[in-house]
Known about the structure:
alpha+beta; five-stranded mixed beta sheet; 14 strands
Amino acid sequence: MKKSKSSFLHIRILPACSLAIAAIAMTIGMHAQTTDSVTETEPVRPVIEEHIAAEGVVIIRMPDALKNRLRVDASKEQEVSSAIVHGRTGGYRIQIFADNNPRTAKNEARTRARNVVSRFEAYPSYVEYKAPYWRTRIGNFRTYDEAEKAAAEIKEAFPGYSREIRVVRDRIVIEELARHYRAIIELIGENPDREGLRKTPLRAAKALYYATQGYRQDASAVMKQAVFEYAGSRMIIVRDIEFYSFCEHHILPFFGKISVGYIPDGNMIGLSKLARVVNVYARRLQVQERLTAEVTKVISNTLGAKGVIVVCRAEHLCMKMRGVEKQDSSTTTIDYDGVFAEDTTLRQEFLSLIQN
């Protein structure tokens, strides 16, 4: 079979955009051809031949047939606006969480993006809001190792960002999850191509990725965003914090409410952060016993409280819709430390307050 002729398209772009352009070219839904002729229905995939980030140059190799269809003038240098960095492409990114105070978080995220771009021009950056967080997203790396290396450089250049930096790969993970969901639908005997199921694999993948977001969050970092000098009552209680989680044994939901109490020792925490900490640990594959203990431990370690107590009441679908199928069953777990472990009257006081 005769190989197709290829030509080179030389695009000069702004340095900050080069990674984004490379990623966009790589994710165009086309596949390389091995013949001279290309019909409208035949897929063609441009291939990145070379990427020189420092010079802001991307060289793309593509078949002549595709070049003609795109009407590209290879002799003309095309400057691309830096707005291209706002495109969403499918690689690994570095993510830096901003403080979730709505009065300051947006500006903080923008400042961090400007700081990173001013120091590392080759890394495209954009600011994104996804409730409840503003975040700065940086780069579009082909491999996790490349992203980790860049993250280490950013941490070294900006030590204050270290705790909030994460390497993420949202789209890659979601697409892979969707592929597996499609296979599951086929394996149980359904047709994933029928009208009602065509978009189900992607919807289910997005839902699962959202429901397990706790793996991509740091409970201690969340708490430290709102630690204040203690100036209040003897015992602080936030009760009936609803949560939704997945049983790690059957990957079926369990859900309920958590009540948290602590006795400060110099520091107290913004009340909403207790609810966020519950979400961090609930949005994972969990067992109720560990969920209760993890919430207790992180509050105690982060605040240095005199004592922390947590009560969790939940219903488990793995007991309701399968197995023993006991519809009225519920489970209560309790964990405590410090003065709550030493003083039964404090425990009784807490339990009576959350019941009234």
